[in-house]
Amino acid sequence: MSLQPPTDSPPTDSLNVLPDVLFLVLDTQRRDRLSCYGYDQPTSPHLDAFAADATRFDRAIAAAQWTVPSHASMFTGLYPSAHGVLQSYSVLPEDMPTLAERLQAGGYYTAGFCNNPLVGVINNGLRRGFHSFLNYSGLLTSRPNQAGTAPQFLDRYRQWFKRQVAGALNQVQDAFARSEALLALSLTPLMVPLWQTALSFKGNTRKSLEDAANLLIHRRGLQAHQPAFAFINLMGTHMPYHPPRDYIARFAPHVLQDREAQHYLRRFNGDVYGWLAPLSGELDEHQKATLDGMYDAEVAHQDELVGAFLQRLQDSGALDRTLVVICSDHGEHLGEKQFMGHSITLYNELVRVPLLVRDPKGGFERGAVRSDVVSTRRLFHTVLAAAGLADAGEAALSLVQPATADNERNQAFSEAIPPQNVLSLLQKRKPDLVAAHACDQPRRAVWLGNHKLIETGSDRIELYDVASDPSEALNLCDILPENVEVLQDYLQQLGNVALNSTDMTSGANAKHRAPGFDDPEVQRRLRDLGYLED
Q1: Please, what is the average pLDDT of the chain?
Q2: How far, rounded to the nearest angstrom, does the alpha carbon of residue 308 sit from its chain's CA centroid?
Q3: What Å distances lie between residue 123 and 80, 106, 120, 175, 294, CA to CA?
Q4: What is the pLDDT of residues 374-420, one digit of tens each?
Q5: Does 115 fall in a domain?
Q6: Could you give the dihedral angle defined by the CA atoms of residues 137, 139, 142 and 143, in that order, rounded to the nearest 10 degrees?
Q7: How many folded domains does the chain comprise?
Q8: Is residue 143 part of a domain?
Q9: In degrees rounded to 5, what are phi and psi of residue 371?
């Protein structure tokens, strides 16, 4: 991908109107597997080119470790404890407006192109506010009307019938997400291949990007001068791993020749329980190389498709009238610290995510790298501010603003509440692993400057210097007890604010700040430890 100005660039006065907004979530994309974030494999040349023409955030932190609460935070601007969408059966409160609802009320045409059934199929409120929401996963996907030459009444009947069938099948899929017994049934060896195929589990990346590009370029169904909001969720890097052969040849060539690796990969792809449970021991070198290589192959394949999509927007001139946000909802464990998947922890493999923002109006500097700690929940505020729909408190939390004393100052907060249906399965099958890894305990983490504190349950504390130790190999809890004490206090205060306020500024909602937040002694100790500047 080469982001060169198109020959038919829009006139400069087009930048004075409200921008289109593209919100692209690369589901399960690890930050450390993208070349633009320092990975030593060429997995992301197209995203690298985009990052060179955008602002790249080096320390973006997801508000949660898995899809549902993380998307809910990006869609509401709230931390998980505040929005309450913590489980697959949770429903967003009706009185809690979503980003799409706010944009729709502000005149935007809102469209979703979603490949994750937990966002596109389950009835949890995340689809609220969309004029059009197309689902590319599930037993019957929803797509744009492909009416041909059939008589109009036949086409209407066909569309009506399709909606009835889709509604019934969506109810079935919704029931599986909410029922522990049905979920357990779906994970049995005989059922896994069936539902992986029937559900089109990873959706259709190419088709969803094509449909989103058509909206942003051709603008069918939009009123004259009406801005568009396009939300896209892609599942290319989610398990199971089935990248095209040429990508396997580039990133995991041994898999094409090694029968042992092929056997391990088939077993892994079919063992959904294995995507959720901690490991009883470390992966061996061969297994780790297989998973790493196949994950990288999926990253590279998705990058090619995203690159073609962005180039199409560039060639049409649409890119230069669009605020583009590219991020991940969470990452993925591939055996690190004996964890797999993304159900349990708050380690960097899961919650330190990629974030790239390209702004046609220049609010985000092209080619810049931001090193301040930011939460992905602030993407809600960022988009509203760009659309001219943010109030003063929300505008203060836009990421276009550098870290100051009036917004979240070089800090972020994450919560990992165990998904109950997953936990029930783990407790029945591997209770010893649940206890050993505290899978049944909630986790909370706070990032402040270079330090990160993780609190698991009421008795497990971890402290890391994530600047010098990004892999979180050395727990500094016993070495820096003073830091632990301060950050524990700060975590408690930050958690209270997250519960009591949609705004962590010192402005209109200051009455919701936790007691002691502005205590001079707390502030002094934070400055002494290097967390705050004078």
Answers
A1: 84
A2: 21
A3: 18, 24, 8, 10, 32
A4: 999 999 999 999 999 999 999 999 999 765 545 566 789 999 999 98
A5: yes
A6: 80
A7: 1
A8: yes
A9: -105, 0
